[in-house]
Write a structure and sequence with these properties.
Layout: H1 3-47, H2 60-65, H3 70-83, E1 88-97, E2 100-109, E3 112-113, E4 117-126, E5 129-132, E6 148-154, E7 161-162, E8 168-180, H4 188-202, H5 206-213, E9 224-230, E10 240-249, H6 257-260, E11 262-265, H7 268-273, E12 282-286, H8 287-291, H9 293-297, E13 301-307, E14 313-320, E15 328-329, H10 334-343, E16 348-354, E17 361-367, H11 372-377, H12 381-389, H13 410-420, E18 428-430, E19 435-436, E20 447-448, E21 455-457, H14 458-463, H15 467-477, H16 479-488, H17 515-522, H18 532-539, E22 547-549, E23 561-563, H19 567-582, E24 598-607, E25 616-625, E26 632-638, H20 640-643, H21 647-664
Protein name: Penicillin-binding protein
Domain Penicillin-binding protein transpeptidase: 349-655
Domain Penicillin-binding protein dimerisation: 154-316
Length: 665
């Protein structure tokens, strides 16, 4: 064999070696990629709690060796993780080396976070696929197939909501769980008769009671709860038993329902929004109960332990102390809130009471309302439907809804006029008749006033609420100056309050489409919209030396102020607002009382489709003690002709209460 032949043979051997080596290298890389893929799928499924994906990721042999089926595997993870309320899983330090997967896992449960557990799993080939070799220590590191998880929890006590003086607005009260011990119902016709009587008393459908009694856990001798009732509602009936319990209670009932809200059991929708909630938790469903739910609810405590078959604790996986909910202190005064609610009588409307120098909201009333205690105890569908179908919308918080403010707006327009120099103390306007329009370009549209006066100054215009005077004032100011002035009074501004409220609006567009809209806006009609709270904020300038103050409802908070107008302008406007009460021609003259220095502005906003027709009239009152300046009230009555009394008439009972409380302070 010559050298050439030997060289060819050696070369061939080298090539073959390289080919074989390449095949091994390629296969090795392919195997590594497959291992990474199954490991990633395992980690992702675990993190997302998609346990139904597990059977295809683990070896059949490993499951059989532990006495598990694929269904058992899914059920085990679902029960363990669901039972302890796992709602978030953090996985870190994921590595694969020599077909060994390692990682660390931390669980966020309904009672807190576990420590970080370390895991190790083999990855082997089965039926030409790489899979995880599974055993129970992939649930918890020291877990065996026969071990169980023990979970004991202690519910946190919900905090109370208190008024400014520490009186309860939301607390707990003694109640009774009404229920049935099935054997006490009798049989046949007697049973049917007793269930029918219980159904009528508890306002629960017979079908609902029967469905409750058919639950798998129900036994003849066990107490089956049906509904929570108040102490005064307990009634002895055949088959009906009671167990003492505690329940959320609202001392003011309807008088503060829209503000305080109520609590209830979590629903599937609640759990979807917040997976951290326990399935049996009680949470805030509306009002401040909902807004401050996290603080009020606190944090449940308890223990999660790994136990053997006999229930002996092998390892404590997590122990957390219960943290009771915080009490929430409000600026609301229970006495004022209650008085303001009942003084609205049968009216549909709202009353807001605020301290104009501090911004503290003393009362936020909306009427009609609903019974929050009924909501907590369990309201029937029929009763709930009555609320929902009530055309006066008892679930609406009217103090945060926007309305055309009507003539109360004139006080603000007057202030803007003084600041811009278009209005002075000696300036008068000659106006003839009860209707006026700028010129023929307005077509058939005319501004209407109630009282005829031929020579009108700013005081008379405010005292008798002259629409024409302020329409002309708005036109003289012009859109640019009027808008700039109104914005200083809080239009377009958001306030940090724990409920929804759109900013006060000057108009739907950035600019008025015509002069009529400019004129109408100047006396509180057109497209201008303000909530009763926003009116209180704007009017606070007249009791706070020209500064408006942002509102707050939490006790101890501080409010910010901003310059709306000048002290000089405030004095001029207030001189007229006092006369709105003291002058016999004043629109709030019937509020005059000896020894008080009440300043006020009334308003009527008419809502109608076209001029010349009669529409719904909303009545407003803004008032404060000009001397003490320690309270400010805005009251509003929707469609007051339907109720028969205006906001001014209904305020006659509330104002003395405010005077008394202000004096006590």
């Amino acid at each position: 064999m010559n050298k050439k032949t030997i060289g060819i043979i050696i070369g061939a051997i080298v090539v073959i070696g390289l080919v074989i080596g390449g095949i091994f290298f390629f296969n090795e890389k392919k195997d590594e990629k497959a291992q990474e893929e199954v490991a990633n799928q395992w980690i992702t499924s675990l993190k997302d709690q998609k346990f139904k994906s597990f059977p295809k990721l683990v070896t059949t042999k490993s499951l059989k060796s532990q006495g598990y089926t694929t269904d058992d595997l899914v059920t085990k993870y679902t029960k363990v993780f669901g039972g302890i309320g796992v709602n978030d899983i953090k996985i870190s330090d994921v590595k694969i080396q020599d077909q060994i997967l390692t990682y660390k896992m931390k669980l966020h449960t309904s009672i807190g976070d576990t420590s970080s557990f370390s895991y190790k799993a083999k990855i082997v080939e089965e039926n030409e696929e790489f899979k995880i070799v599974w055993n129970p220590n992939l649930i918890f590191p020291n877990m065996k197939s026969t071990d169980k998880i023990s979970f004991n929890s202690t519910a946190a006590k919900r905090g109370n909501i208190k008024d400014v003086n520490g009186l309860d607005l939301a607390t707990v009260n003694k109640a009774f769980q009404a229920g049935i011990i099935p054997k006490d119902l009798g049989i046949g016709g007697e049973r049917t008769k007793n269930i029918a009587a219980i159904s009528k008393f508890l306002d629960l459908p017979v079908s609902s009671i029967e469905a409750t009694l058919k639950q798998s856990w129900v036994k003849d001798f066990l107490f089956v709860p049906l509904k929570t009732v108040a102490d005064e509602d307990v009634r002895k009936m055949t088959g009906l038993q009671y167990k003492a319990t505690e329940i959320r209670y609202y001392p003011l009932g309807e008088a503060a329902a829209n503000l305080i809200g109520y609590t209830g059991k979590v629903t599937a929708e609640d759990l979807k929004k917040d997976p951290s909630l326990r399935s049996d938790a009680t949470i805030g469903k509306a009002g401040l109960e909902r807004a401050y739910d996290a603080k009020l609810r606190g944090t449940d405590g308890g223990e999660i332990s790994l136990t053997d078959e006999q229930g002996n604790v092998k390892e404590k996986l997590l122990k957390s102390e219960v943290v009771d909910g915080e009490d929430i202190g409000l600026t609301i005064d229970l006495k004022v809130q209650k008085e303001a609610y009942f003084d609205l009588e049968r009216a549909v409307g709202s009353t807001v009471v605020m301290q104009p120098k501090s911004g503290a909201l003393i009362a936020l009333v909306s009427k009609p309302s609903f019974d929050p205690n009924q909501m907590v105890r369990g309201i029937s569908q029929e009763a709930y439907n009555k609320y929902v179908n009530n055309e006066d919308k008892p679930f609406m918080a009217r103090y945060a809804q926007r309305y055309a403010p009507g003539s109360t707006m004139k006080a603000i327009t007057a202030a803007v006029g003084f600041d811009e120099g278009t209005l002075t103390t000696d300036k008068t306007r000659k106006i003839n008749g009860l209707q006026w329009q700028k010129d023929a370009s307005w077509g058939n549209y005319k501004v209407t006033r109630v009282a005829e006066q031929s020579v009108v100054n700013y005081k008379n215009a405010l005292i008798q609420s002259d629409n024409i005077f302020f329409a002309q004032e708005g036109l003289e100011l012009g859109e640019k100056k009027l808008r700039a002035g109104l914005n200083k009074f809080g239009f377009g501004k958001d306030y940090d309050l724990p409920f929804a409220m759109e900013p006060a609006q000057i108009s739907t567009d950035q600019h008025f489409k015509n002069e009529i809209l400019l004129a109408d806006t100047s006396y509180g009609q057109g497209q201008v919209l303000m909530s009763p709270i926003q009116q209180a904020v704007a009017f606070s300038a007249f009791a706070n030396e020209g500064k408006i103050i942002s509102p707050h409802i939490l006790k101890g908070e501080k409010s910010k102020t901003s310059e709306a107008t000048t002290p000089k302008t405030v004095k001029l406007v207030n001189d007229a607002l006092v006369q709105v009460v003291e002058n016999p021609k004043g629109t709030a003259h019937n509020l005059q009382k000896s020894g008080t220095t009440l300043a006020a502005k009334t308003g009527t906003a008419e809502l109608k489709m076209e001029q010349g027709t009669e529409g719904q009239q909303n009545s407003f009152l803004f008032a404060f003690d000009r001397k003490k300046e320690n309270y400010l009230v805005v009251s509003f009555v929707e469609n007051h002709k339907k109720t028969g009394k205006s906001a001014v008439e209904l305020a006659k009972n509330l104002l003395p209460t405010l005077e008394k409380i202000a004096t006590e302070e």
